[in-house]
Amino acid sequence: FPIPIQGTINTVIYQLDPSAFNWQIENPTIASIENGMLIGLQNGETKITGTFENLSLSLNVKVEIGIDQQTLFDFNDIKEATDFSLKGVTNLTFKNTLPEDWREGTTLHAEKISGRLKSLSAKLNKTTYGIPDALALPIANENNVINRITLACYDNLGERHLIEIKPKAVNKTYIIDLKNKDGNLFDIPQFPIKVMDLNIYFNNAQDKEFSIGHLYMVYPKKSEGGVSSILNDDDFSISIHGEIANVRYNTNSSSPAKLSVYSTTGQMKYNDVITSECGINEYQFNTKFFATGLYIVVIEQGGKSIAKKFIIR
Predict the structure, then answer these.
(1) Adjacent-strand bridge partners of 259
(2) How far apart are CA 186 and CA 122, in angstroms?
(3) 108 burial class (0-12, 13-18, 19+ CB within 10 angstroms)?
């Protein structure tokens, strides 16, 4: 993750280059810093201190690396959630049964659901950690009790995103891709994501039940390959030829990778999903509209990432 640093001189704010600082890490098993990029190594907390001439700053860092599926919200706790409310629902109770192929989740029974506004509302106030690939929500809706579900989320930049699920009358796990309105996946600076408002809208029903699993964060599986550790410029390099940037990297996985380019302030300038094959890969992009300055190219694949700086002159 690029380390954003701002300095103020006579009320004027300047963006400082984190790679110019000399960094010390209290616990180097938790995180490392390469070219101004903070890289999480394992779950835990540590303190980093950067110095540049007479400037000094310290940051507390918490690293949370997700693997496989991690529970974000347990619907067994729904009635204890903030601002929990029901409209048009009579006698909603928990059942001790689950669908046959489920290991966790909750089954709810409604004595009667009727009226113009039929809903369950609550504030979840849950924050994701790391960079999940998606969210997942199992729903057993064979009785067609649920009409739709909405989740209001806020990204790390403060923008609101509304997720909507329209479950069919089946038992199914719904995968929720974390995308912007333009269809592009969330960028690194948008994480973490805070999941706030839940609304479940119902159809008319009487003496019916439905099941909802945990709301999961989905991460890459532990066994999946990823971009190799970078040992030298032969493994990962970027060169500029005129207006064309050529990226060369080594990977042990034949799966798509995400390439992103950031300014040193963390602003994304370019991104693309690229096809990768095991071994050495090359990718080119146009820098025609890049201003002169320092940039960071990041490649993510299989839960791992590598980063390198380059200069546009």
Answers:
(1) 272, 299
(2) 25
(3) buried
